[in-house]
Design goal:
The longest helix has 30 residues, at 96-125. By secondary structure, the chain is mostly helical. It has helices spanning 2-29, 35-55, 63-77, 80-92, 96-125. It starts with a helix and ends with a helix. It has 5 helices and no strands.
């Protein structure tokens, strides 16, 4: 239960940071290109890599700290950082088929699910 609270607290911080970046980038650059999303995905992935590498020397991976920072803050900031970590782990394990499938299915299925969700709501709201 304690780890869930760490994740929730971190998630609130990460979501707040993402909202602040979304708001600022919209004011600075307008809605023409998703600069905020691109930025949080790249920055979140950079931070995830640095965090995971920094936590490796600790016995057990420092579960409370990892949960608060990686699952919580970075998960609230962008889930793309977790996706990036998963991709790298599969690459390091040399699981190339699983890697290719994971990337393809994640992108295609996520976009398809988004379109399906929108279509379902549109059909109900007519």
């Amino acid at each position: 239960m304690q780890l869930i609270l760490y994740a929730a607290a971190g998630g609130a911080i990460g979501a707040g940071l993402r909202h602040a970046i979304n708001t600022a980038f919209l004011a600075w650059f307008g809605p023409g290109f998703p600069w905020a999303t691109l930025t949080v995905n790249v920055v979140g992935s950079l931070l995830m890599g640095a965090l995971i590498q920094a936590l490796m020397p600790f016995d057990g991976g420092a579960p409370a700290l990892r949960t608060f920072l990686a699952t919580g803050i970075l998960g609230g900031f962008t889930t793309f950082s977790a996706f990036s970590l998963d991709v790298w782990v599969l690459y390091e394990r040399q699981q190339h088929v699983a890697l290719a499938l994971y990337i393809a299915v994640s992108l295609l299925a996520s976009v398809a699910a988004l379109v399906l969700g929108m279509a379902l709501v549109r059909s109900v709201m007519r």
